[in-house]
Amino acid sequence: MLEIDQLTVKRDQQTLRYQVQVEAGEILAIQGCSGVGKSTLLGVIAGFVTPTGGSLRWQGQDLLTRPPEQRPVSMLFQDNNLFEHISALDNLKLGFDGPPPLRAIEDAASSLGVSDLLHKKPATLSGGQRQRIAIIRTLLRPEPIVLLDEPFAELDQQTRGIASDWVAAIARQSDKTLLLVTHQQEDVTRLADRALVL
Amino acid sequence: MSRFFALLLTSLLSASVIAADKQADLTVYTYDSFVSEWGPGPKLEQAFEARCQCNLEFIAAEDGVSILNRLRIEKSKNKADVILGIDDALIEETRATGLIAPHQQDLSGLKAELKWTDSDFAPFDYGYFAFVYDSSKISQPVSSLDQLVKSDASVLYQDPRTSTPGQGLMMWMKAVYGDQSEQAWQQLASHTVTVTKGWWEAYSMFLQGSADYVLSYSTSPAYHIVAEGKQQYKAALFSEGHVAQIEVAAVTRTSDNPALARDFLHFLTSSEAQTIIPVTNWMLPVTDNVELPQAFDQLIAPKRIGFSNQEVASQRKKWLREWRNAAAR
Amino acid sequence: MLIAGYAALLLSSLITLLAFAGLIGFSDAAVDWALLSDRYFHSVLLFSLKQAALSTLLSLLLAWPLARALYYLPELPARRSFLSLCLLGFVMPTLVLITGLVALLGRNGYLTPLLGDNWNLYGLNGILIAHIYLNLPYAVRVLLQQLQHIPDRSWVLARQLKLSPWQRLRLVEWPVLKPSLLLLSGFIFVLCFNSFAVVLALGGGPGATTLEVAIYQALKYDFNMAEALTLAWTQLLIAGGLFLLLNRAGSSRWLTADSMVRGNTPPTAVWMRQIHRAIYLIAWGCLLLPVLALLPALFQADLLRFDWMALLAPTLTSLSLALAAALAAMVLAYLMLFPIRHSHRQRKARRRLLLEWLSTHALVAPAMVISVGLYIFLLQRIDLDRWGIAFVALLNMAVIIPFAIQQLKPRLLQYDAQYQQLSQSLKLSRLQQLRIEWPFIRAAFTATFALILLLALGDVAIISIFGGDDWQTLPLLIYSYAGSYRITEASIASLLLLLICAALVGLLERVKQDA
Predict the structure, then answer these.
(1) Which of A48, A73, A85 is nearest residue C440 as measured by Cβ atoms?
(2) Tell me: the pLDDT tens digits for A149-162?
């Protein structure tokens, strides 16, 4: 279980407060107006934002004392998810402890319709293509907690459906605890067990 | 690419092996151009080693002052048996290090015009500072320092803070003008092209045609005649007289082999060495009856004026300051 | 890696410290306070500041339109060769440049008849021309690079909003130039402030004396450690303080991400294009002329009789020394940047400033004091006649490290800004990080290496103090030719040195393009 208890973050002049519990294997959608602190919450969990108070626990263990590299987290940022100067495939191979799961990557790429793009540099891809490549890696990495910051923002209606179904399937299948920030009600109904409105 | 690196490495290694050859019997501190392959160093080394059956090693500093500075830094830990290439203006400062032993040489063979009596430092060549001009461009050269100063001919000279000829001109001006030298410097500054750091900067600018006169040595024309066959460069003879630069050698008090060191000093004034030095260092021999190329007969024979070494040592700072203020435009 | 970085910083600081210790420890020299109220000292200080400020201002003012011309007209003929020539200009050995300028603009120069009767190269004129020649090309490269970092999106937006040329200048171009302008001007100012050879050769008299020249004089002829130290501290204080100030003001902005697509740079008006072309043409002329002016010396020489073999060993020595110094400097600079990048990420502004200053301090420290001080320190302890050559490499390395830092830092900080979180989130190992970082910095890395290699190749100051006569380098050989009336040989050797520099520039620009 992921427990976020009395967590406070100071941002500019205001103080953001978080109080959430997420069951292991649960998929939680986080909603709310722009600037309310959705991405900040993901940042705290991943370790890039330091809170001023409260606690963050995973399976009973304190995460706040650990640097980002030692947290059981795989995160999709809003941007800068891919190294621009190496190929999409090389990007996909990163972030795995041992050898990367090439079969799974290929399967995922064909499910999401990006198989032909794997040898191109990200800079030559469209926003939606880049986003799908990044989603694949984020989900396939062997971390129990997955954080997705507006993962489908740049996808068209049809691809969006395919991608969210794929995410849901992989998350269920490998028992991920998944938090996703989204503005779309459709993502919530299609994917999430529960929605949290900040 | 890797072959290129291999070549570089080999050259580095072989050079370091050469550098670490056998122990020298006699170590001589001198300046760079003295030991360059066209300087007197290699020939003198060969000639002396044949005589003494010993191993002579030159260690070169940048110039004469650097030899003195090295002694000042190393003090009694210096490696030199002989220092060679200090000029007479630096004698007192060098003596003050307390590292110089008497040379015990017989001075009677030296040219009379040198009036040499110093018991620590022995001369091996000398020259007069002089302004050199191109006779194909100037048919009526100036005949005195005063004429030059009051003319509007363009002049190049060297900074007395950084070069020996520059210091020479400073003494020259002082000897000719005395208390009036400040005005003379100002007048000279009005038609000075530039003041350079060292001798060659000024001289090469002159050869490129940057000025009518350049401060150099009375012997400079000999080089152009002997090495290049060019006759047009001449030194102007000044009626007030010229200041000399006398290059000297000395034995160090710390030498392990003072007898050999004195032999080397003696060798420097031998007719063999005195024949080598003028045509490699382009200065005049300090002994009479040395056989030289004809070009040397055409050189000017100036009257010698100037100050004693003690006077130079005690007044140098004051003169420099005077020049600095007067020549600053 | 952090520890290695701190060790590298310590090593380079230690060289400076030992040098000062050498001076202070020798004859227990104290600072000569009386000098501070001396009229001569004031005039030296004032002149150093004046010529440096003017050189900087003029270099930047002239470099700006040229950089714009190169940016807006990528199709200019021989544009890449021009950029190579710029690099060559920046690293041109000063003695070669001075000879060229005198041949061109001296009293009998090829261009002098066009300049009127009152023209005189020597004095402030000559100093400014030489400093501009050395620094403008560098400024052009930096400004152009900066302009090329304008994201294509900005241009799309600017055109969509129908911004006027003035608005584009103010809103799109100026913001990317501003932060680097401050750093660039500080950099050029410090280089000119510490200028030595140019000032001595073209200054024209004691009226044109910089602090560095005064230090040389105090050390060499007066052997006056106290005066040298006072001058050195003054120089360190002014140049160092200024550099610190500008570093603080200028480094607050990130470089933007690379935009590989570039299709939306607004087209310029026809008349503007003509102006750009004209500027470009004039710049070609100005950069080439001093080099071309050296050529006639070749025709005077008997090239067949010339002893070419005499140049071989010095050339190899020069190359080996420069390679050793440049390689070591690259490694140390890269290591030093670890703690600097770390403090950037941690947003520790003070520590970052301190580390950045330390890593580039050799730029502002008086070179004369460092080499002479270290010489004094070592001469009493080590057999320099045997080991001097190692210290030539070491000191050359120390002197070029700041340039390496200057060049590598922006690229690495850009990498961190773009990818640091991603790398952390992906839990990349050190080796993986290096492997991914390398292709990103390779171009900057090679260009930096070329630059510092060329700088090391032109050194004479250090080798003339430390090198014995067993180690002749090409620049030293040029001096020694010239010091024995062999002016023609000196010109030939100068041209060879220039040719080697040009070849290296060409080679490394090609490597860079392949990357």
Answers:
(1) A85
(2) 999 888 888 899 89
